Amino acid sequence: MAAGVATWLPFARAAAVGWLPLAKKTMPKPPIDKKSRNDEILFVNVSGLRFQTWKNTLDRYPDTLLGSSEKEFFYNEDTQEYFFDRDPEMFRHILNFYRTGKLHYPRQECIQAFDEELAFYGIVPDIIGDCCMEEYRDRKKENQERLAEDTEAEMATDTPLPPHSTPRERLWRAFENPHTSTMALVFYYVTGFFIAVSVIANVVETVPCRPLKGSKKDLPCGEKYSLAFFCMDTACVLIFTFEYLMRLFAAPSRCKFMRSVMSVIDVVAIMPYYIGLVMPENEDVSGAFVTLRVFRVFRIFKFSRHSQGLRILGYTLKSCASELGFLLFSLTMAIIIFATVMFYAEKGTKGTNFTSIPASFWYTIVTMTTLGYGDMVPNTIAGKIFGSICSLSGVLVIALPVPVIVSNFSRIYHQNQRADKMRAQQKVRLARIRLAKKGTTNAFLHYKEEGGFQDRDSDNALCLKNRSSFEHQHHHLLHCLEKTTNHEFTDELTFSEMCMTESVGYRTSRSTSISSQQGVSTSCCPRRAKRRAIRLANSTVSVSRGSVQELDTLQVHKTSVGPQSRSSLNARTEDLKLNCDDRDFTAAIISIPTPPANTPDESLPPSPAIPGILRNSRSTSFTHETVKISSL
Amino acid sequence: MQTRQRRPSRDKIDDDLELSMVCHRPEGLEQLEAQTNFNKKELQVLYRGFKNECPSGVVNEETFKQIYSQFFPHGDASTYAHYLFNAFDSSHNGSIKFEDFVTALSILLRGTTTEKLQWTFNLYDINRDGYINKEEMTDIVKAIYDMMGRFTYPALKTDTPKQHVDAFFQKMDKNRDGVVTLDEFILSCQEDENIMRSLQLFENVI
């Protein structure tokens, strides 16, 4: 019930006295209201702006924050007021809702900010008053569409392939996003070229060429050089067929693919050729065959895969289907009306062109679209009058739906532009985020390297760089985690090197400068881990080519215990194999960003090369199992 | 504060227009306090609620019916609200001012038994002739049953209102002349313990 009705309830209850004489039974006891009846003024302080209101006002909506006991959580005993650390401008509207019972949407505010405030105060947006509801809904829908676009853009084209994709998935991806691999790009351009060639050949073969020797008649080039054209046609059709079959093979959902518009266009483009091959050469059927050749012109629609503008046009027409339908309908109505009128107006004239109403259709269409060929002209006065009315109305009828179509096109076009801009911005944003993440990771690692874990005496304290209390606490937390898991944080470079060397079965022993910790040497990977690690290395190789990815999590569980050593890398390689017990190596690596410096393209070289690699790596090393967490 | 009505006549203009132009201010707080049984604070609370709902200071019948119907969503409360409106509208000009509102509430909640019964009699006596006859009573009872709606237990029969009216007249009409006068009414009600007890229950509504 509306808030205001609550005000009238006492009065309605009082009026119940009027039922008493009629009542056959005694009235039930009224509920006892234990709350104090006195109305008091409440103070609500929202970020410094002080509001005052009657308690009754707030009590009108008991299922919101301010109307329920939830506001007691925000009560400040010292200042005897309710303090909310929220937007004071928005609060004005919220409070007005309590006062008037209608929630208004302030037009200059961001829709999401408004929604968040409503959610905080426990108000359902559905009660927005009619005056503002439409605006609110429109803005909300627009916002949601934009968000959906963003997430789509994120998930779409440029996302990295999952590491274990089948060749089929890779093929499909190559077809859908040609710029992901060079082969796909080449194929893309080749098909484009052949589409163009095919269309041009279709056009040129009808141009009259110089006649053969001994004949006067001009021949269309198609018949003169029929063999050449046939070969070209065959080549094009072969390429198109090959492309279509490849797409069909690679498509994740074949039925869906076969129903899609592009695939239908492909089929229509190549069918005439095959039908032509199959059909016999007799005269009766070749007439139909000629008609079929017309369909070859549909090859030009294959360009829409190559051109985004064409696709936009297609979407526009699809989305304006109702307007186009209306245009068509109204035109048809007008044509029929005017054709009838003209026919009857011109019926009397001798030798008139307006022989029937369908014959008048042609005149009406030509006049309404202001073409005016002049092959059919009215002669009577009445005919001329109606003819002029016809042409005037034609302009109007056609001009009406056009702005709608234009605005639709503009909207879709801008959406596309925005999607592209979003994608560009997204890349920049991701890069920035990654940089920030790296910063915090490195901060912790530097802190460790500089001996932060050692007992803090005055000398060391001076060496440590200045850190905020937030950093202190954060690092303490990370340290606790390290202690809990008995693993340490490391950075990507060291880990990737370690990963690579381990995949060949050699242990990398790395010792840290932190000698105080009880070290455990990294064990070598058992055979099964070795296989996984090799696949890992290979996948990182293939994936890191050209694509920038995020490092999510990496867990390395090793519970081996071994002597702590600061030995150099070379020395350890011999007795590395001794500790190959069953260790559990679970690597949940997703990917490694920008190809590690020593990523070999072929399988990793055998042992003699390893020390060399290891020698090149960083001198700081860890004795512990390392855990890389990059989502700091 | 004086009672000020900018457009007094209701015959000239539409009801809506009139209400939007009319701005009725009640008499002073002290006066109202003297006239009714409420104290200042209660009057303030009442007026704030009233003014919030009706910024123009008056309630017309349509609004009244809407408000009252919201309390009885099951059935149709418009007929009874109409009678109620007439009972509240002591000056009979088609609109309830704050004074009417508060006077009636004062009687219903803080008045003596006689005053309450008198008010109820006025409610039942639709044509204000001093007598309640069977037709008036039937109308009232039908209106009350209308508020119940269709889905009741036990189900409403068509002659339930009539039976109810007959029972009422049986009790109230002492001299069996077919009408109930004010004195008969008050006397009969005072004899009935149920009614007397129920009358006390409604004193704490505000």
Automatic annotation (TrEMBL), chain A:
Chain intervals for the UniProt region annotation (Disordered):
142-167
* Any one GO CC term of the record: dendritic spine
Q: Which residues form the signal peptide?
A: 1-16
Q: Does this entry carry the keyword Iron-sulfur?
A: no
The BTB domain covers 40-139
Tell me what topology the record assigns in the membrane.
Multi-pass membrane protein
Task: Report TM segments.
Answer: 183-204, 224-245, 257-279, 324-345, 357-373, 385-406
Q: What's any GO biological process attached to this entry?
A: action potential
Q: Which UniProt keywords apply?
A: Ion channel, Ion transport, Membrane, Potassium, Potassium channel, Potassium transport, Signal, Transmembrane, Transmembrane helix, Transport, Voltage-gated channel
* Matching Gene3D superfamilies: 1.10.287.70, Potassium Channel Kv1.1, Chain A, Voltage-gated potassium channels. Chain C
Q: Where in the cell is it found?
A: Membrane
Family (UniProt): Belongs to the potassium channel family. D (Shal) (TC 1.A.1.2) subfamily. Kv4.1/KCND1 sub-subfamily.
Give the quaternary structure: Component of heteromultimeric potassium channels. Identified in potassium channel complexes containing KCND1, KCND2, KCND3, KCNIP1, KCNIP2, KCNIP3, KCNIP4, DPP6 and DPP10.
Supply the name of the protein.
A-type voltage-gated potassium channel KCND1
TrEMBL record, chain B:
Tell me the CDD domains matching this sequence: EFh (cd00051)
Sorted alphabetically, which keywords does the UniProt record give? Answer: Calcium, Cell membrane, Ion channel, Ion transport, Membrane, Metal-binding, Potassium, Potassium channel, Potassium transport, Repeat, Transport, Voltage-gated channel
In terms of InterPro entries, this protein maps to: EF-hand-dom_pair (IPR011992), EF_Hand_1_Ca_BS (IPR018247), EF_hand_dom (IPR002048), Recoverin (IPR028846)
TM segment ranges: none
> What GO molecular function annotations does the UniProt record carry, in alphabetical order?
calcium ion binding; potassium channel activity; potassium channel regulator activity; transmembrane transporter binding
**Keyword Metal-binding attached:** yes
Q: Tell me where it resides.
A: Cell membrane
Cellular component terms (Gene Ontology): voltage-gated potassium channel complex
Carries keyword Cytoplasm? no
Which GO annotations describe the biological process of this protein?
Answer: regulation of potassium ion transmembrane transport
Source species, domain of life: Eukaryota
An example Pfam family from this entry, by short name, is EF-hand_7
Tell me the ranges covered by the EF-hand domain, including all copies.
76-111, 112-147, 160-195
**Which PANTHER family did the record assign?**
CALCIUM BINDING PROTEINS, KV CHANNEL-INTERACTING PROTEIN 1
Protein family? Belongs to the recoverin family.
Q: What is this protein called?
A: EF-hand domain-containing protein
Tell me the classification of the organism that encodes this protein.
Eukaryota, Metazoa, Chordata, Craniata, Vertebrata
